[in-house]
Amino acid sequence: MEEDDQQKATDLVHELVLRLLSQNPKTPNTHPDPNSPTFLKTLRYAHRILRSRLTPSVSPDSAAIAESLTRRLATQGKSSDALSFADLYTKFSSKTGPGSVNNKWSLLHLLKIVSEDRQSAANGLDSSLLLLPNLNLDDAVLGRGKKKDWSNNGGVLLVSKDPENLRDVAFREFVSLVKEESEVTEEVLVRDVLYACQGIDGKFVKFNSEIDGYAVVDYVKVPRATKTMVRMLSELGWLFRKVKCFISESMDRFPGEDVGTVGQAFCAALQDELSDYYKLLAVLEAQAMNPIPLVSESVSESNYLSLRRLLVWFAEPMVKMRLMAVLVDKCKVLRGGAMAGAIHLHAQHGDPLVHGFMMSLLRCVCSPLFEMVRSWVLEGELEDTFGEFFVVGQPVKVDLLWREGYKLHPGMLPSFISPSLAQRILRTGKSINFLRVCCDDHGWADAASEAAAASGTTTRRGGLGYGETDALEHLVTEAAKRIDKHLLDVLYKRYKFKEHCLAIKRYLLLGQGDFVQYLMDIVGPKLSEPANNISSFELAGFLEAAIRASNAQYDDRDMLDRLRVKMMPHGSGDRGWDVFSLEYEPRVPLDTVFTESVLSKYLRVFNFLWKLKRVEHALIGIWKTMKPNCITSNSFVKLQSSVKMQLLSALRRCQVLWNEMNHFVTNFQYYIMFEVLEVSWCNFSKEMEAAKDLDDLLAAHEKYLNSIVGKSLLGEQSQTISKSLFVLFELILRFRSHADRLYEGIYELQIRTKESGRERNKTQESSSWISEGRKAITQRAGEFLQSMSQDMDSIAKEYTTSLDAFLSLLPLQQSVDLKFLFFRLDFTEFYSRLHSKGKES
């Protein structure tokens, strides 16, 4: 039946060709000969067309192809043909119903291909290679009643049915061609690629050190495309070797400091990923045992493995292995928090696969680091054997534990922990260690448990992990708040920090007035002696006597016992005033606040205030001496008027100079005691109440002390005005000694004048100027008073000059309070006018 149908189709084609050739306008009224070469060539061409696969790669659109043909005719200069074709196509497309062509687009496409094929033949090209390949027919095909040999045709896929199984024939020929080009089957290459992906050389795929990768050996004939594909697939093995080598080297060095627990966790995370990778390879090796079927064969099961299938299987493992290789290169020289931070930077990725992979990796890598944070924040334990944590401890003295015992290591701070959070973590652990070591307190454990409960975490290991930064910050905040509050409560209540600060203010800053005045009175005569002749034990007795004689005796005995006399280093020419000072002995844990540098500042302030008190005490002593009215005494009635005038002038000059000095000292002392010490103490008290942790308390105390030092003209920026102030103090002390000499002389003159009237006839020693008679007394009195007047004038002149220099420097100071001091000292503008007159003259 099939042979009859085929013969019938052949006869129809034969008849069609005869009819078309007979209607050729170039040879009208000519009946073609069926055996002529022209007829046979045309018939063969018709068979080629019918056997060809003419399906195009464009979508079927008859209007578009008609437009294309019309445009081509127009561009070739055949405008009339283009118009004729357009008219014919309009009639062709509008015809519908019985006898019309349904698939108009296919017909137009066929005509276009035939036209292009004929044009190629006219240009001398082999059209069979261009448009209709592999369809040349033997002459036997054209014979009537002869059977066609379809098996000898190369052929391509047909659009119509394939009764002769040409498709299978084509695939078998393709397989034969591939076998001729390759000496190795694809199954063998697949197994070798799987070996290479495990870092093992296969039979034909081996590691090539020259190209640093796996490739097919050169002596095996393999198509170029296959070699390229094997090289692409074997990249996974190269990456695997790098990761595996890093894990092996790191674990061989462990427990070395260059690896550490974070590095070990990183290796463990990589090893877990490699375990999943091994499982995948096991599945693929099982599939590689099945043969690769031909495309034409019906495959009952699809669990075979080809190179192209490996590309699909390796897509996800390739991404992960590349990431692991990049991390291995990045982390070779890193450890601890630096390693975790470097890995964290690669987690900021938009690909969900990469992001999820990095998150699972970081959870494993950061677990030791988060455990260190938990242990430090809740227990105060620094579990950092290999120096990986961003908190570093070092052995120091107990008084330096808070300030220098623990520091941040910026190089080990991972990027997912902010610097502010790191500072809170550092301070929380320091607070626990300070309570445990310095305060001998264990109440912090309850505070840590409360903090863990409030933050919703646990105090056990593994309670925190990567990706829980908010939970970590909440835990640190709660722990810091509770532990810092407990620390301040211990300092304030158990160790009485505020009371100790008040005791220092009373005794070192001379705030206890009755104590200071009594101490000044009883040690003054002793301190006037050379420093080498003064015993510190004797001064300690004076100190104890001053405490018992003043209200200081009612203070806490523990604080009074810390107050001691200190003799500073001195030379041979120093007096007791130059070396005497008081010191306050802080004990643990208060020595964290009152360090040696802090106590040295207190010592500077004490020496300054002690000198100021000494100057005030000197002026008070002068006033006590001046109080008896020596001028109206009857003893000077018989003196000459010139001597009386000299005496009155000297006394008046002394009184005026004392008033000037007393005005300056009184106002300056008021400024120091009230505007500096009291205001600074008031601010410090407020900041103590507002302090939330020990760092705030230390900062408040440092600010308090620096405020006193700066406003008392003891800072580095006030050295010039400080020298001018000390010159004024020295002049006042010189004035005290001259005033004592003056009044001692006047007092002796009174006595001698009275005695000279009763003992005028007595014989006196020639060296005694008082006993030489009234004339001698008058002469010596005049000389003495003249000398004292000159000394007073000299001191007054120096004092005025020094005070003017001091006042001129006050407005230049940064502190506003010093400018108000200038207003208090010169509220009548007396010194300003005097300064202006001095400039004019």
TrEMBL record:
GO terms for cellular component: microtubule; microtubule organizing center. Residues 190-493 form the Gamma tubulin complex component protein N-terminal domain. The keyword Cytoplasm applies. Keywords: Cytoplasm, Cytoskeleton, Microtubule. It comes from the Eukaryota. Its main location: cytoplasm. The keyword Cytoplasm applies. It is found in: Cytoplasm, Cytoskeleton. Residues 499-831 form the Gamma tubulin complex component C-terminal domain. It holds the Pfam family GCP_N_terminal. InterPro entries: GCP (IPR007259), GCP_C (IPR040457), GCP_C_sf (IPR042241), GCP_N (IPR041470). Belongs to the TUBGCP family. This is Gamma-tubulin complex component.
